[in-house]
Structures are given as C-alpha cells and as structure tokens.
Amino acid sequence: MQGKSQFVVVANRLPVNRVRREGAHGWKISPGGLVSALAPILHERSGDWVGWAGFAGPAPEPFEHDRIRNCPVPLDKRELSAFYEGFCNRTLWPLYHDAIRPPQFHRKWWRPYVDVNTRFARAVAAIAGPRATVWIHDYQLQLVPGLLREMRPDLRIGFFLHIPFPPVELFAQLPWRREILEGLLGADVVGFQTRLAARNFRELTRRFCDASPVRGALRFRGRNVRSRAFPISIDVESYRKLASDDAVIARTAEFRERVGQRRIILGVDRLDYTKGIDTRLKAFGELLRSGRASGADCVFVQVAVPSRERVSEYRELRSTVEQQVGDINGEFGEIGQPVIHYIRRSHPADQLVALYAAADVMVVTPFRDGMNLVAKEYVASRPAPDGVLVLSEFTGAADELRSALLVNPHDVDGLVDSMERALRMRPGEQRRRMRALQRAVERNTVFDWAESYLDSLAATPA
Fold first, then answer.
1. Is residue 365 a contact partner of residue 392, using CB atoms and an 8 Å limit?
2. Which terminal residue of the chain has fewer beta carbons within 10 Å of its beta carbon, N or C?
C-alpha cells in the first residue's frame, strides 16, 4: 500500500542522534551541512527521512523531531559487521578512494549489502505517495534506486554520491560492478561531486551495462538517466555569524594567547587513512629538521576526530599518527612548548570556527576526497581576508578553490615546500588569494547545491 509523503530523503543515518536525558532516551538534531540543507525542504514539503537510528536491534516506531518525520530502518549486529564495517568500509570505501588501502572482496559481505538495501527500498516504497520525489544519498545505498524503481515505477528518484567515484580500471575490480551500476541507473538523476566522477560513471555504464548516450543522458532499459556534477558546499552564512560571535572571538584570542607569537598550522580531519594525516605530519617534521621553520616560530595543531575504531586499518592509523606526534615532539619540543598539539576528539562548531579563525595556515591534504568541506569552512570562517589554505589537488574542493596552494599529498618534498611558502607568504598575496577563495565559496552554498539538484530532478520527465 502506498503512503502519503511527497518528498522522501533516504540516507544511511537519520538526521538525529539518540541521547539520554533525565534517565530516558530522547533525540537531538545531528550537526552537519546535509541536515542543515535538507531540513528547510523537509519542513516545506512535510517530508520524511528514512535511515538507520544509530544502534543495533529493532528500530523505533516512526517519530517526528524538529518538524521532520523520521522513519527508522533496523540493523542487527551481524548486519552492522558485514554490511557497514565490511562491504561499505572495507570494500567500497577504499576502492572509491583510489585503493589507498587494498579493498577486500568477500562474498559473505555482499549478501547483507543487498539485504539492507532491499529493506531501505521497501521502507521508502511503503511511505512514498503517488509520483513522490525520493532523494537517496551515498555509497551505502547504491542498490536502492534500482530496487525502488522495480517496486514503485511511478516515483521520481534521485541519487547523490558524496564520495569519489573511481575510474574504470579500479571500479572494474569489483565483482559486483554490474549490480552496483544497474542499481544507480534506477535513478532519474545520478549526482556526483565532480565532472570527472560523472564521466567515470558514464563510461562504466556504457562498458558494463550497455547504456547508450542520448541527448546528454544515458539510455537504459527504455529510460533516460542523467548524470552530472553537483558540488556540495556549506552554510556560509552560519560560519560567518559564528566567526563574528563575541564568545568565538574571545576563544580565538585565547587560542592565540596559548601559543604565544608562534604561527599556527592547523589540520582538522576524521582519523581516516584517506586524509593523509601521517604524510602531513612527516612533512612538518622534515620542515623543522631542515631548519626552514622552528618550534619557536610555528606550531602544528591537529584535530583528529575518532572514526570507525572497530576497523583494524583505523586502529593502525591511530597508532601511527600518535607515534609520529610523540617522536616529533620528543625531537623538537621544549618543556611547556610542544611543536604539535594533537587532539583526538570532535569539537562543536563554535570551537572549530575559533580554531579556523586563529590558524595562519590550514593544511587539507587528503589522498582522495569527494569534496572536503573543511577547506570551505576555513575560508568562510576568516573574519579578515588573510590566512593560507594548503589544499590537496585530489579533493573535489580543488576544482573550485583554485587560489589555494594546491599540492600533491603524496609528494613529501612538495608538502614541505608548500608549508614553508605558506608560512612566508606576504600579507598582500594572502589577501588576494583569500578574497578569491571567499568569492568562490559564496557563489555556491549548500542551499544552492540542494536547489540545483532538486531543480534538475524536477525537470526529468514524470
């Protein structure tokens, strides 16, 4: 039986987190750009959000929070292990990030991926009204568009991939390549962060699914499927407001006072092997070792947000990074004056903005990233047009933020040179580059991204 909702967002997680208050469980809205961008649309259209509630076991009954109807999908412990930790994070994640770590292709993980995607598709089919719009998000749910198309051919279906989409020679390694591609081809519009990712998708579907190009789209099983880039962004105005808040300004001054006259080099990342934290720290150690900078004139602040700590590769990365921090501080630090401040926890938005505003140099050097919003957050948080952004050329953000110092994150010597250049950059060049970066961020906010995508989806034939 069909539901009544005319707009449904589908993501691996609900837009809320469960919290304990006064001995009982409640919900609070999740931080992040996706929720901020889609909440107004859900409010306006009285939409539903389908996702996992964040804990194993039976799902709660559908509930409303902050004017969004939440429709939880259950996952048990076995599925979390095989579907999420296994296929999503040990197969798809490394494969889609240039195989920085070897992807693992285990048949025992594939079936749970199919089962969970089927469960999500059924949940959406049950609540979506006639000819409703459904927007599915990210790599955990790539089969849902095709499954939902079979169940509800009346729906207008969109899919957006937040991470990179790999080239033919990498994706072709996936034993279930055709199934994934056919799943994505169930959508009317398949969105990517970059034009390169969209081009990879078109080439793969022509090779493995016999999709044919027609009038700017792909023809597949009697339907036209459009694929193009929709680069995601941030709520620029919210970061600017935070940067001008008196409490944040005071916190920025406090950070500056703690480090004295030293310039701050900042990194903010999830503790993930794709982010290049270990190579970045190696480059900083070599910068000090070469004598081109010293602990008396600069300090590195690395915020590393814990991530997927049940996965062995992430535990190994944590050990490597913490060993590097200890070695470099042991070699170059003084009593009361470490050269690296390492913080392994998440920070609320106001504290992050204070750090962004305090930092003289922001180092964003992933080996591969779909977009990387930290780079845009830094630019939006600068109260004055100063500071230097050192940015990996292998991020989606590099397509827009051309006035950053673009670097190859695999090139340690190049990283050392770029850090030195950033520390020595004259104020005039800093202002010129930062103004250009701020204009680029202003041109495309997260709200522009959502509007652009949904306009494209609405333009598809019903």
1. yes
2. N
- pLDDT score, position 53: 93
Please list, in sequence order, all residues whose beta carbon lies within 8 angstroms of the beta carbon of residue 179, skipping any fewer than 6 positions away.
Answer: 114, 143
Q: What percent of the chain has pLDDT over 70?
A: 98
Cα–Cα distances in angstroms (integers) from residue 57 to residues 60, 75, 144, 191, in the given order? 9, 6, 21, 32
Q: Indicate whether 1 pLDDT > 60.
A: no
| Cα–Cα dist 101/122, whole Å | 33
CA distances from 250 to 87, 254, 255, 258, 302 (A): 45, 6, 9, 12, 21
Q: How many CB atoms are closer than 10 A to CB 76? A: 12
Same-domain status, 451 and 375? no
Tell me if 222 sits within 8 A of 232, measured CB to CB.
no
8 A C-beta contact, residue 329 and residue 339: yes
Query: Which amino acid is residue 153, in one-letter code?
Result: P
| Cα distance between residue 67 and residue 40, in whole Å | 9
CA nearest neighbour of 221 among 190, 189, 191, 185: 185
**CATH value at residue 287:** 3.40.50.2000
Distance CA 141, CA 138 (A): 6
Q: Shortest CA distance to 51 belongs to which of 68, 67, 33, 26?
A: 68
Please, how many CA atoms are within 13 Å of residue 52, restricted to the half-sphere of its CB? Answer: 20
Angle of CA points 396, 8, 62, to nearest 5°: 120
Segments forming the whole domain that contains residue 334? 238-443
Cβ neighbours of residue 426 closer than 8 Å, sequence gap 6 or more: none
Q: Are residues 306 and 400 in the same domain?
A: yes
Count: domains in the chain: 2
Give 21-74 pLDDT, tens digit per residue. Answer: 766 678 888 876 678 788 888 888 889 999 999 999 999 999 999 889 999 999
**Over residues 386-392, mean pLDDT:** 98
Residue 47 and residue 41 in contact, taking contact as beta carbons nearer than 8 Å: yes
